[in-house]
UniProtKB/TrEMBL annotation:
<dbReference type="GO" id="GO:0016226">
    <property type="term" value="P:iron-sulfur cluster assembly"/>
</dbReference>
<dbReference type="Pfam" id="PF01592">
    <property type="entry name" value="NifU_N"/>
</dbReference>
<comment type="similarity">
    <text>Belongs to the NifU family.</text>
</comment>
<feature type="domain" description="NIF system FeS cluster assembly NifU N-terminal">
    <location>
        <begin position="10"/>
        <end position="127"/>
    </location>
</feature>
<dbReference type="GO" id="GO:0005506">
    <property type="term" value="F:iron ion binding"/>
</dbReference>
<dbReference type="GO" id="GO:0051536">
    <property type="term" value="F:iron-sulfur cluster binding"/>
</dbReference>
<dbReference type="InterPro" id="IPR002871">
    <property type="entry name" value="NIF_FeS_clus_asmbl_NifU_N"/>
</dbReference>
<protein>
    <submittedName>
        <fullName>SUF system NifU family Fe-S cluster assembly protein</fullName>
    </submittedName>
</protein>
Length: 152
């Protein structure tokens, strides 16, 4: 596939996730984390529900740029059904990818691997990692601190 066609595919996938984000909304239960990117004003609220050690449900809300929204959507698809350890490994892999590190395991990120080009735009790295940082905070700290939202 010609490079320009590949670039167009990447753009189309990113625009699709931004325009039609998967798992957008809020959950009534689970661990809720709010994060923002003060550099550009992106804001995310991520809620993660666990069933044992597996992510059984996940949703995000807020507002952000195309990259931030697409990344959040891609992240929710990539980690749903994964164990905490698997999801944290994907978050680590994603962060390395968008800072320019190459790894043959990037395919495990699903559509999120299409954001590898963000590494060429350092100002956009924070946009792309916002949702993934919220996920890490929820899984690393949120459940440990009992930062749970209970249904009404």
């Amino acid at each position: 596939m010609a490079l320009s066609k590949l670039d167009n595919l990447y753009r189309a996938v990113i625009l699709d996730h931004s325009s039609n984000p998967r798992h957008a909304g809020e959950l009534q239960t689970g661990c809720m984390v709010d994060l923002n990117n003060p550099t550009c004003g992106d804001v995310i609220r991520l809620t993660v529900e666990l069933d044992g050690d597996k992510i059984s449900n996940i949703a995000f809300s807020g507002h952000g740029c195309t990259i931030s929204t697409a990344s959040a959507s891609m992240m929710t698809v990539a980690v749903l059904g994964k164990t905490k350890a698997q999801a944290l490994e994907l978050a680590k892999l994603f962060s390395a990818m968008v800072t320019g590190e190459e790894d043959e395991r990037q395919e495990a990120l699903g559509d999120a691997q299409f954001l590898a080009g963000v590494s060429k735009f350092p100002a956009r790295v924070k946009c792309s990692t916002l949702a993934w940082n919220a996920l890490k905070k929820a899984l690393d700290e949120g459940y440990a601190e009992n930062n749970l939202v209970h249904g009404q």
